[in-house]
Amino acid sequence: MPLVALALLVSACDGSSSHVLASHGVRVLVPAGWERVRPAVTNPRTLLVAGTPGVRPKPSRCTQAAYRIPAAGAMVVVIRWSSVAEAGGAPRPGRAPLRRLVAVTKPTFECFAGRGAVADLLLGGKRYQVGVLVGDRASADRVRQALAVARSFETAG
Question: Does residue 12 surpass a pLDDT of 50?
Answer without folding.
Answer: no
